[in-house]
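As the next step, I needed to go through one protein, both as residues and as discrete backbone shape codes, included below for the reader:
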Amino acid sequence: MKEDIDSFYNLSASGQIKFLKQSDFVDRSTEDKIEFLQTVLVGDLSSKTIASGLKLLRELKFRQRSFYTKFLYHPDSSVANAARKAVEESSGNKDSGAVRMVDLVKNEEPAERLAMVEAMLEHKKEVKESVLISLLSIDDFALRDFIVSRITPDHQLDEIALAEAVKHSVWYVRASLVEILGRRKSPYIYELADLLLNDKNVEVKLKFIQALSALDRDRSRSYLLKLKEDSNRQVQKEAEKTLATI
């Protein structure tokens, strides 16, 4: 098979697509064709070849979702669309948009979830606020922690939408969103300040303190002084500690 793979890579894009349609390849066993395609598709190929290869894998009933998710956010839409169709068929889920993608992640085993989400977050211009919020809502602490650690200022997110979601979310989503806004040094943290000062969840308040520590020290100080008087001792101590550092 190695000789076939080397020869395949030396072909032009049109030659590669022609190769996949010729009888020499078509007449191989399903297992051989799937193995060949899995191997060559991770190489440096044209978008047309990748899209054709993914379509063929789907038609061969290859159902390994984690393989297809690597291509979900490919910059070429033909590749991304081919991957999405393959993922849909492998999951049996025909819903659309964010709900579909989130359901795919939710239905995976924990280890596979991380791989899928990592592929999604790599394409910083493609991450939607609705998808991010829905992913954070999945009952998986490790997944939420992973997502928060991967979101950077380079992700083109609407921070107003994220801040608005804080007002209506369960505590663990609120905490994650506050941490994300803090990591991005978003001024919208201050828009949420009065709400967060009175939040009933300790974890949310701790994330608020963490976010304040990364923002303007003079503006943050007044909120930290209030948090220093919080009814929860852990919140008090963290506020005191942060005040000492700024």
